[in-house]
Specification:
It is found in: Cytoplasm. Keywords: Amino-acid biosynthesis, Aromatic amino acid biosynthesis, Cobalt, Cytoplasm, Lyase, Metal-binding, NAD, Nucleotide-binding, Zinc. Its EC number is 4.2.3.4. A six-stranded parallel beta sheet has the order 1-8-5-4-2-3, sandwiched between helices. The N and C termini lie far apart (42 Å). The chain is of the alpha/beta class and 353 residues long. It is built from 14 helices and ten strands. β9 (319-325) and β10 (328-334) form a beta hairpin. α6 runs parallel beside α7, α7 runs parallel beside α11 and α10 packs across α13. The chain has two domains: 5-161, Rossmann fold, CATH 3.40.50; 165-351, Dehydroquinate synthase-like - alpha domain (Dehydroquinate synthase-like, alpha domain), CATH 1.20.1090. The longest helix has 21 residues, at 199-219. The protein has helices spanning 12-21, 34-39, 41-45, 67-79, 94-106, 120-126, 164-181, 183-191, 199-219, 234-246, 253-272, 276-290, 300-308, 337-351, and strands at residues 5-8, 28-33, 54-58, 87-92, 112-117, 131-136, 139-146, 151-154, 319-325, 328-334.
Length: 353
């Protein structure tokens, strides 16, 4: 898989101009959702190299990360004269960069694309690493491809327009990066003042978080080994998201990951010896800032069934990424059904769900 260029922008106009120059094209398209069309596109239109861009707008939120939306973007590209030499810019959160990346990977067997993530979640996770895809058949990211963007341009000034829930959604992935990297970074994240955000300091933390992911992806682009470290919190988290989708409950991805981290730190404690004090500190931060996802014991079977569909599974076993200590990662860990149900019991007890 080719390496993508990731830039923490000082001047978006300069960085974007340079990124576009590296992608010779006949037509320029920009994909937004209803939110980024309203909040971010006006600024983009002021940039000279974007004046000829043809905009395609899709619905916002994860409920639109579907085959139907994908087909509508393919149709719009086709109707507006896109060729295999066209360039697509994805301007938005993780839903836009995931779906837009998959659009680019598949239209005319692949066109060049640039990601400009506008949410914290997209900056530190979705837009970086080359994973693209859509939800299908009630399952998260069930259809997709590894197809890295030519460039990812991170402009943290966009974060000033984020509401608190979208800020914390992205921050959960940063917390995960802290847990899989080192104690110093983890402690920085737990102690960051989320009530009075210092955006310059946040930019520094975003840069560190992206570096953690970049380093891991460089070692294992196609997730055969150490890249599975990035799945901490996601086996349980994706099950929570899938349950929420079936019940028409709106759950942001990062919140599901945070709740998944609670579950998987418990598994880490009982299976690989993760320290109880660090587990409790992390869970305390999550409980304070993310609330809890409510479910009862009658839904354990359904959650377990969702976990059985997880892409990380091998030979019928549910596969987890666990920790022995902060930064000490154990991939390809399994747990039986009884232990997973105990994990759900622990989650409901400690989170008051």
């Amino acid at each position: 898989m080719s390496k993508q260029e990731i830039l923490l922008c000082e001047e978006l106009e300069i960085s974007l101009g340079q990124a576009i120059e590296k992608c010779p094209h006949d037509r320029l398209f920009v994909l937004t959702d209803e939110h980024t069309h309203r909040l971010c596109m006006p600024r983009m239109k002021e940039i000279s190299c974007m004046r000829e861009a043809i905009e395609i707008v899709i619905g916002a939120e994860d409920t639109h990360k579907t085959l139907e939306t994908l087909a509508s973007v393919w149709q719009a590209l086709s109707d507006k004269g896109a060729t295999r030499h066209s360039l697509l810019i994805n301007l938005g959160g993780g839903m836009v960069t995931d779906l837009g990346g998959f659009t680019a990977a598949t239209f005319k067997r692949g066109i060049a694309y640039i990601n400009i993530p506008t949410t914290l979640l997209a900056m530190v996770d979705a837009s970086v690493g080359g994973k693209t895809g859509i939800n299908f058949n009630g399952l998260k990211n069930e259809i997709g491809a590894f197809a890295p963007a030519n460039s990812v341009l991170i402009e943290t000034e966009f974060l000033r327009s984020l509401d608190a829930s979208n800020f914390f959604s992205g921050y959960a992935e940063m917390l995960k990066h802290g847990l899989i990297s080192n104690t110093g970074h983890w402690a920085e994240l737990l102690n960051f003042d989320t009530d009075n955000i210092d955006y310059q300091y946040l930019k520094q933390l975003v840069g560190q978080s992206v570096q953690v992911k970049e380093d891991i992806v460089a070692q294992d682009p196609f997730e055969h080994g150490i890249r599975k470290a990035l799945n901490l919190g996601h086996t349980a988290g994706h099950a929570f998201e899938s349950l929420a989708l079936t019940e028409n409950r709106h759950v942001l991805h990062g919140y599901a990951v945070a709740w998944g981290i609670v579950c998987e730190l418990y598994l880490s404690h009982i299976k690989t010896g993760f320290p109880k004090d660090k587990m409790r500190q992390t869970i305390g931060f999550i409980k304070e800032n993310y609330g809890a996802f409510a479910f009862d014991c009658k839904q354990y079977e359904q959650l377990y069934a969702f976990m059985q569909h997880d892409k990380k599974n091998m030979a019928g076993s549910i596969n987890f990424t666990l920790l022995k200590e902060i930064g000490d990662i154990s991939i390809n860990q399994t747990a039986d059904k009884d232990t997973i149900f105990e994990m759900f019991d622990f989650y409901r007890e400690c989170m008051g769900a």
